[in-house]
Amino acid sequence: MIFRTFNNYKFLLRYFGFIYIILFTISIPLVAANQNDETITQKFSSSIYDNSLKNIKDLEQQLSDKNTPIVDTPKLYRLLAEAYSKVGNQNKAFSTLTQALSISNQLNTKLESLKVLMLQGSLYAQFGQLHKAERNLTQSITISRSLNQPELTLVGQNNLANVYVSLGQYDRANEIYAKIISSASETQNYLILAKSYLNLAHSHKLGGDLENTKQNLHMSNNIISKLPSSSDKAKLLLGIGELFHQIDVDSSSENKEMAFKSLNQAKEISILIKDNRSLSYAYGYLGNLYENAERTEDALVLTNQAVHLSQLENMPESLYLWYWQTGRLLKQQGDTPGAIKAYQNSIETLETIKHLLLQGNSRNGRFRKYVGSVYIELTDLLLKSSSEESDSQKLSQILLQAREIMESFKSAELQDYFQDDCVAKLSNKTRGIDKLDENTAAIYPIVFSDRIEILLSLPNGLVRYLTKVDEKTLTNETIKFRRLIEKRTTRQYLKHAKKLHQWLIKPIEKILDENHINTLVVIPDGILRTIPFSALHDGDGFLIQKYAIAVTPGLSLTDPQPLARDDISVMASGITEATQDFPALPFVADELESIDSLYDVSFLQDKHFTNANFKNSLKKKPFNIVHIASHGQFSNDIQDSFLLTYSSKLTMSHLESYLLQTKFRDKPIELLTLSACQTATGDDRAALGLAGIAVKAGVRSAVATLWFVNDKASSNLVSEFYTQLNNASLSKAKALQNAQIALILDKSYDHPSYWSPFLLIGNWL
């Protein structure tokens, strides 16, 4: 799997605030009216990783010092918020800014209030809250104009334009960049002028206008010649070189020449002014330029220099990129052991800064698309190398290592979706499922561009299987299967169910039989998250008719412990009436009554099912099972995912906080059931949220649906599931299997659209 050239690099660098290559953010300190303020800020931003925690401590000491003048406190709080943001502490950053703004308003220091408001807008953008960023920055621009602060007005305008670029509103961004260019031309501010032309070029590039991209790149390059040698000039040249390389779609010799010329000039300036940080990027990007030209030896020399400088300057944000590049180059040379080591170095470095990469970048699965390539490429190398290993012990180690790399990636991907550390907390408390129970196997499919690899964990070890199906073919087949299986009036889904079974289950069927497996734990990857494995078909029957099935987002995120059947208490909530433009669920009443006949149940139904009542009920009594029969939606953005209460919505954050309010992390709720939720067809990121609901909610297991089943069948299945669950000899997976088979045997509900959307997520015991 070949690295996607500069597009990945560009996005990865925009994750950080270390070096502005394309989307230059004109920061407040660069144009601060108070020179002392600029010095303090530069001091506290000189080393993102090593110094940020120390800076926080120093600033907190200054704020607690009674001798610190009250007039300085707003500025110190602002700097403290900036430091918090650099270590990824979003909540602390915003709460500290709130303090800064409150004190500044009390002191009537209008300029400082403006700077706080502007920083708040920039941090909203950094943490992915783009509409809040738009609001704050627009307000900041209005205030800066009223205070006659033209430089701060430019700061706000530039950062607002960057937000519009992130929102994909390129015309609005271009209009603002044009205004900045006009203002900067009048004042002959060549630095801002050059940055703005470069930002405008980048916006045009993203909008698909390559002609205007090149034109504005040349304008920026012409203005740069007026600037003295400096770090800013080096960064601008890096940005120009990068963008010329990105638009080299037609192998234009002019674009290649401009890319090389700009990057080489950036290198020379960096050497002259002894700017090792910029020099590291110059060597690294020149190395990538040579890599794409297939001049591997030259690329390696340059990349090694980039690695050395990043180590020297303690720059993990670039070091992992250059290790990654080294791995690709060594792979091209056929040095597999060297390539594996370089990739391992890249991921080890990446793990130290992963929390920063995850800040506010959950939209559209960017972490998987860009950063995930490092993990996937290393896994690819390891699995291919395992084909040449004859020693069984070494082979087992390689396979375990490949799975661990993917586990780390899956945990990060889930953390990226939920935008909090619930994943890390759970990983520290669970033992995973390496030691499987007898008759249980874990299927770990890994989707590569050219094939599917299946790692099968059995009670006695780990084995590998290969299916020669490329990712595009698998994706198309999976989407067709998912779309057709929801249609109750057709059996067209069946041919796709058979094909997917042939690719994913048939290769391992024999060994499953030999090991007398009756329970499958599936760790789906990518698009495979969007389908129910239970409905795969071998020509004779559905997979669920042969195996009990559970899914989990990762082995390390599962804590398999049997459900204690004695003294079970259930909190059952549901909506039967139409509300908030959602249709009625008339059979929910039957569903709740059937649970009441089996267990000790507390009810919240219709108008009584509110956020406040839900929270208070959980607080009063510790429940083993929480059942919610209401509309729910899992979107590709966690902010748009919710469960419906009677007059409001229960967000995933609300759900987590309510379930954990009595510290259920240490004694978790055993089961959370959501019987009417849905995810979009083919949206594997939305399905990632569904797969991780047990993790987010802090429960051992969850039962939820991939699509909405507004039918008596849903009530029948849930009722049967709870009846089966009352049998202490059955696992939760077996209980759900029996409930699904009961519907299959009922000719009214034998179509998989009725029973297959129900998934058991997490602990299957």
SSE blueprint:
Blueprint: H1 5-15, H2 35-44, H3 52-64, H4 73-86, H5 90-107, H6 110-126, H7 130-146, H8 150-166, H9 170-187, H10 190-206, H11 210-224, H12 231-246, H13 253-273, H14 276-292, H15 296-312, H16 316-332, H17 336-357, H18 366-386, H19 392-418, H20 422-429, E1 440-447, E2 452-458, E3 461-467, H21 471-485, H22 493-504, H23 506-514, E4 519-522, E5 548-551, E6 569-574, H24 588-596, E7 600-605, H25 611-620, E8 625-629, E9 632-634, E10 642-644, E11 649-651, H26 652-659, E12 671-674, E13 677-679, H27 684-691, H28 693-697, E14 701-705, H29 712-725, H30 732-744, H31 752-755, E15 758-762
Helix pairs in contact: 1-12, 3-4, 4-5, 4-6, 5-6, 6-7, 6-8, 7-8, 8-9, 9-10, 10-11, 10-12, 11-12, 12-13, 12-14, 13-14, 14-15, 14-16, 15-16, 16-17, 17-18, 18-19, 19-20, 21-22, 24-29, 29-30
What labels describe this entry?
single chain; 765 residues; alpha/beta; Nucleotidyltransferase, domain 5; six-stranded mixed β-sheet; five-stranded mixed β-sheet
Overview of this protein structure:
The chain has 765 residues and is an alpha/beta fold. The protein has 31 helices and 15 strands. Among the domains are: 432-557, 2-Layer Sandwich (Nucleotidyltransferase, domain 5); 569-762, Rossmann fold. The chain has a 6-stranded mixed β-sheet with strand order 7-6-8-12-14-15, sandwiched between helices. Helix 17 runs antiparallel to helix 18 (366-386).
Task: Compute the average pLDDT.
Answer: 86
Helix content: 55-70%
CATH 2nd-level architecture of the domain at 569-762: 3-Layer(aba) Sandwich
Q: Do you know the CATH topology of the domain at 569-762?
A: Rossmann fold
Tally the helices.
31
Low-confidence stretches: 1-47
Total count of strands: 15
End-to-end CA span: 38 Å
Structure class: alpha/beta
For the biggest sheet, the summary is: 6 strands, mixed
Q: Please identify the top-level CATH class of the domain at 569-762.
A: Alpha Beta
Query: What share of residues are in beta strands?
Result: 5-15%
Q: How are strands sequenced across the largest beta sheet? A: 7-6-8-12-14-15
Radius of gyration: 28 Å
So what's the overall shape?
A: globular
